[in-house]
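Handout, section 4.2: multi-component inputs.
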Amino acid sequence: KPRIFSGIQPSGGLTLGNYLGALRRFVEKQDEGIETIYCLVDMHAITVWQDPARLRQQTREGAAAFLAAGIDPARSILFNQSQVSAHAELAWIFNCVARMGWMGRMTQFKDKAGKNSENVSLGLFAYPALMAADIMAYHATMVPVGEDQKQHLELTRDIAIKFNNDYKVDFFPVVEPLIEGAATRVMSLRDGTRKMSKSDPSDQSRINLTDDADAIAQKIRKAKTDPEPLPESIEGLRDRPEARNLVNIYAALAGHTVEQVVRDFAGAQFGTFKPALADLAVAKLSPITEEMNRLMADPGEIDRILADGSERADAIARPILEQVYDITGMIRSR
Ligand code: AQP
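Output:
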């Protein structure tokens, strides 16, 4: 029986990129009736220093975003990673299976470490092993993610295969990335070649799920574009990353194909297209923002939902982890 696992880092407020690339599809999978496990990966977040009070706030806000977007805690398991210790325990074992060379090839590590790789945390380097543990602790086989996570999922697969080979078992399943839809990579509003990211220093580069209608409209109005009108056909977007990004966002929000959006706005100036996009974004996002605000008024209730989700997650992961300890030769006599 397929089981889905995916997570989002509470390393900042969630963005339109997280919503279109991940959250919205998490809800679709839940509604398809598949067993779904979703996690606020707080231990991933601290691979880059987080202020403790803000981390707590962002974790609750992330949970509120899941709920507001349509995750039903009765049908999905929703929890935060640090409450289920199987993640950290399995990650250690995977640290011993994964190879330094594999980790060193991860483009996200290279991007985040930049030229200063001597000075970033060891956790940032080992991040993909924890991610592999997140997924394999549940024997999950399907992982809905944005395009940027594809390389990490390939590494998850490599770690699982190497574990199976090293211990001569057929224990961990082969995982499939689910990367589908019009907005698997939402780009920055300031630079169409960089992904929209919650940790970008410029707030103008992203739409936050907590932005109000005015902020959304203002950010889209100011979004970087080129001086040309929108093209008559999709090929005309090829070398225009900013234009392509806005069209992609429109398509994803409207539930239309990119072709359809290009047809509808063929030859339109950005002065026409941007207000239409802003109206659409506000119409789709403001109900979520309002619901998030309502939920955030009762943090105790959010904590209760996370506690319940953590217990249910632990009930699945713990027996799998115990088998891993057995396979690897650890004495478990207490
Ligand atoms: N711009 C994006 N377009 C489409 N999908 C995206 N995702 C993130 N950004 C985009 C997807 O959201 C999920 C959760 O991502 P994450 O929070 O674990 O970390 P990230 O990918 O590193 O996202 P950020 O926003 O860039 O966080 P920071 O700034 O902390 O690194 C994933 O499925 C991801 O694909």
